[in-house]
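Review the following:
>
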Amino acid sequence: MKYAIFSIALLSIIVTACGDRKNACLIRVGDACISRQAFQERMERFAEESMITSEDQLDAMKPVFVDNIIEEELILQYAQKGFITVSDEEVEISMKGFLEGIDKGDLDRLLTEESRNINDMREFIRKRALIKRTIERAVHKDISVTAEQVRQYYEAHEEEFMHEPTVELHHVFVTNKYEAKEALRRLRAGLSLEEAVREFGDEQDKEGSGFMGVFAKGDLPKEVEDVVFSIPERRYSNIIQTQRGYHIFFVAKRTQGGKLSLIEASDQIREKLVEESFEKKYAIWIEDLKKEFPVEVNWDGVKEVSISG
């Protein structure tokens, strides 16, 4: 949901008093001030983590970046006013989950590369959890979708629930025609697909299982599609020659095309309607917060800030 947009920017929250040019306010939200220096540090970190090196690209993203900072600060001030908190115990549990599977060397390298310490990480996790909790309490908790709304959406958007037939496809790919014939003979005699891939497959495929993916009609070249959609489940195709070499296909599973029933589509519809309702309610909430905590942006100052200093 919406709280995910704050994850990168949160890593460098710094709210300071206004003063000299470095500390002059670029963004004011309520009583809080994001200084020029703080804004630049946050933007540099965002650029680093997003691997953005172009000043032009970053300039184009500044309005979105500023909006994210404003929304983030509005939510934090709302949380403070409403006494919404995250306990130290919750933070420690999240920290433990975050650190699981990271050895000391990797952690030290991560902290060094990002110029952070454990307390930075702990504060990041706390603020991320606080924003998530605040949004859920203020916006998400009262959203509900009725069975009748689901039915109405289904009947009004029937085309969304039409789907093509699919096949779960595996193969053995061989570059030599005679080896392909031997592989097919052995497969039909009981050799497993994985063993056939290891024994006969192309060098690039020998470590694989032969799994290609799940494909709908229209996803595959016609000469392949005509074959794989005509053979029954759990059967091997004849040898199919393509520009690359020789394939033996195996259809592990197939689904019939058609229209999803209301029951089959209901979870998908409910999720979509909840998301749409959330986005509308969230936008209204943020606009109301801007009235409660007035926002000012020094756009000329924002335009002057660059990642090169």
Summary: The two ends are 33 Å apart (CA to CA).
